[in-house]
Design a protein that fits this description.
By secondary structure, the chain is mostly helical. The protein contains eight helices and four strands. The strands form two sheets. It has a two-stranded parallel sheet. The protein has a two-stranded parallel ribbon with strand order 3-4. The model has no long low-confidence stretch (mean pLDDT about 80).
Amino acid sequence: MSFRKKLDVIFLSHGSKFEEKIQNTGFKIYKCEPQLEGVGYHGDLKPSAGNFVCDKELAVKLLKGEIKALEELKPHLIIHGFWPFASLARRMLDKIIPGICFLPIPLQEDFYTSVLMKDVPDQLKPLTNLPVSIRRTLMRLIPKALKLKAPILKQSYHTCS
């Protein structure tokens, strides 16, 4: 007895310069609300130093758009990258949809402090000239509690302009 299942891959999009390329390769696109200009991360989401999306209202609309898409499509699995709205939306439904994230979103404290923060950040220019072994040793010596104070782990809308 042979069981054959058809794999149907559907990309969710809020507007992207890649939509045409996706459709030309034979994949479907579900256009989520709100539709953005599709100019890129900085132009569409207008992030600030510590905020992935600086406009709280836009963040809510993006999340609601993703939830609506998942409710309509009823996927069996979500695969996403650096897009926290997919991760949040799939877990906010009545029936949680399994997901595969090829980046640690949302960032887990242990993963962030051990794997992602194992070398000196590029912003610390003088330290980046040190040999790799010394830079990594320095990072291992920094207490976990101090690493967790990094701006990437905070989302505070009061800093948005």
